[in-house]
Amino acid sequence: MFTQIEKLKSLAFLDKLLMFKFLLKWLFICSIIGVLSGTASAWFLIALNWATNLREQQLWIIGFLPLAGVWIVFLYEKLSKDAARGNNLILEEIHQPKKKIPLLMAPLIFFSTVTTHLFGGSAGREGSAVQMGAALADEVSRWLKLHKRDRRILLMCGISAGFASLFGTPLAATIFALEVFLVGNLVYEAILPSLFAAIIAHWVCNLWEPGHSHYAIAHTPPIDAINILMAILAGIIFGLAGRLFANTNHLSHALFKQYVPHIYLRPIVAAAMVICFLLIWGDTKFIGLGLNTIENAFHIQQPYYSFIIKIVLTAITLGAGFKGGEVTPLFFIGATLGSALSGILPLPIDLLSGMGFVAVFTAAANTPIACILMGIELFGASSAIYIAISCVVAYLFSGHNGIYSSQKIGYAKHPFWIRHTGKYLNMFN
Predict the structure, then answer these.
(1) Cα→Cα distances 401→101, 310, 412, 425, Å
(2) CA-to-CA distance for 109 and 125, rounded, in angstroms?
(3) The pLDDT value given to residue 429
């Protein structure tokens, strides 16, 4: 009996030592990832601010958008075709590690995204930060000669580090990295490294003072039956909007590929469409990141068509070969749609804009928990119930497809989908 008790104590002590070793190992590795990714994101944000300000001061630059697009496509064709697959390449490597993510992905996506924004394309920035983080993380895994399982974790750390440093939301970034590649599942073995990488990258990025965007929800009504029903209705609309964005993006890629077979002609056609729109519309608020419009949406009711225009322009830009992320356009779409809904639904305009901000992102990326945390980090806990309702409902109504075609289904969102497809579980292996 005594021997058995001593054996159990020894095993418990050994388990604690192994956990301590695990903690120190990933704290060291994630410190490297955090410093590299946080610095890269800071420089990236500074470069984007420079590009946006220069474009708005010198609008004639937009006339060179076709040449900018051709140059971007040329760079990827000549330097790294694999890197052109962007976030989907990263997700595929997490699912089935086959080959190293090219380090060249980091400078390519940095340069091409800044170029897209400088010359007037409609795109985001999240995809760029995630790609930089993952490319740098994979390079570190090569330096350290990590095992395949550790490499997967390190890629998730790269995602969380890039996301956290770009948006200033380390908790949301931690869960986003665990949630984004497998719909309906979380991989908890990576939660500690992902958290370390996100916090360190966020802290390092802030040292450079790149200037994150800040939003606020000042008016949160009491929780009652009517307001809950209004939040559910808004969530349904946001879910359909996210679904529309994802489907429009995929359709744009397919149409350009089918009707404009020459890859160098696609950005020229897309740029011509964007320039024609700008000449007719006479306003640049729908191109670039659109941060000023997002901020205004929290205070001034936006036209109902704003979110539709942003969907179309972003789909044209990204579908033709320009580079950039999808998330900031999703913030634009969600905030302006929520702002427009304030004229119909009896909820405060800033609350609806904040709900749309994160819920449309939820719907398009299939990451409800990460987006709930993002809403709390950005807007505070007072609106958490409304944020959660809108995100969860939007997630359910967005379908099983999203902006990332390499996402796999872990658990279906509802039994109806299981009965009609026969698919239920595609476990992480």
Answers:
(1) 24, 20, 11, 15
(2) 10
(3) 37
